[in-house]
Amino acid sequence: MHGAKLSREAVIEGILHWKMHLLVFAITFFIFPAIGLLAKPILLPLLGQQLYWGFLFMCFLPSTVQSSIAFTSVAKGNVAGAVCS
Prior knowledge:
By secondary structure, this protein is an all-alpha fold. The chain has one domain (2-84). Helix content is 80%, strand content 0%. It has helices at residues 2-5, 8-15, 18-38, 40-47, 49-59, 65-74, 79-84. The protein is elongated, with a radius of gyration of 16 Å. The two termini are 15 Å apart.
């Protein structure tokens, strides 16, 4: 319930951090999938085809919002930015 505690100003400030949002988007939807694809020669023999495809599927999915916000809060980071991301 971190987002419910934020003031309107904090939410607007979080939305305006466009560089952070762009970085999170790029890492989530480009870097993690690329790592999963590049790791295929190593992981496929170790995991087998079905587990590798499951691993690759997880690389293409974003993390859960609640855990991302909780970890940001514990690290004393930009909670408003995490809520808006």
